[in-house]
Amino acid sequence: KALENDLRLAVQRNEFELLYQAQVDVMSLELRGLEALVRWNHPTRGQIPPGLFVSLAEELGLINELGHIILVAACTEAATWMRPLKIAVNLSPLQLQAPDFVQSVVDVLKTTGLPAERLELEITETVLLDNRERVVKILNELRALGLTIAMDDFGTGYSSLAILRDIPFDTIKLDKSFVRDIAENPQAASLVKLVVDVGTSLNKTVIIEGVETRAQHERIRQLGGPLSQGFLFARPVRASKLGFLHQAEQ
Ligand code: G
Ligand code: G
Ligand code: MN
Ligand code: NA
């Protein structure tokens, strides 16, 4: 109850901060994009992770406002970078239900000056629980703006094949649970290869998530995974740690 009231105030006062986690090319280890990950800097409880407040924001009807704050902050930050890297922003499925969501994205891109091509919006397989035709229509409207859609936590829902068939999206983010034992377990590695191959043949970008060890990374290299994200390469960091993106290149 106390946290509810605090969250309402936090949205009014914008007590949120975005951390940024690198997405790298598996072969060259070059930086290819960053994912924005929200944190709540609570005035007395300290930093609160999204697992503890995003669903509360959904229950309290605050998610559209919170989502807007996050999108504005992420696009504002990315627009300052000296390299045209992608910024990936997580969405709640409820944001897609707001009648003015597409227009709000148009407005944010316009006011921040971020080219649509540099924005990736991450959704999860739970969008399939909503009216599928409506979701498809909205995703196509968003993609028509020039941005890309990523399917986050891919493989953890119940209907991955139906998702590949029915939902228009550009990027597969393979859930970290599939990566954990790929170095030791050939069957686990086969599953990752399956997703890399299917994604590639369907013309999608594949990002392998949760890469924590060199052994996992080596295995992903062998499988031909194009992009990876994980603690091995970088933890989520504050914007102030992205100085190398704010300086003019020599
Ligand atoms: O950063 P962390 O591992 O604590 O994130 C936990 C969960 O919170 C992940 O599922 C992630 O997708 C989600 N999350 C992180 N940032 C955002 C955000 O800005 N918006 C939404 N809706 N979810 C987020
Ligand atoms: O659900 P989503 O993919 O948006 O969640 C991203 C979350 O995964 C972030 O909160 C981030 O902190 C976490 N994460 C990123 N890399 C790793 C990793 O290598 N290992 C683990 N366990 N978590 C990670
Ligand atoms: Mn994500
Ligand atoms: Na994920």
TrEMBL record:
Residues 1-250 form the EAL domain. This is Diguanylate cyclase/phosphodiesterase. The chain holds residues 396 to 645 of 655 of the full protein.
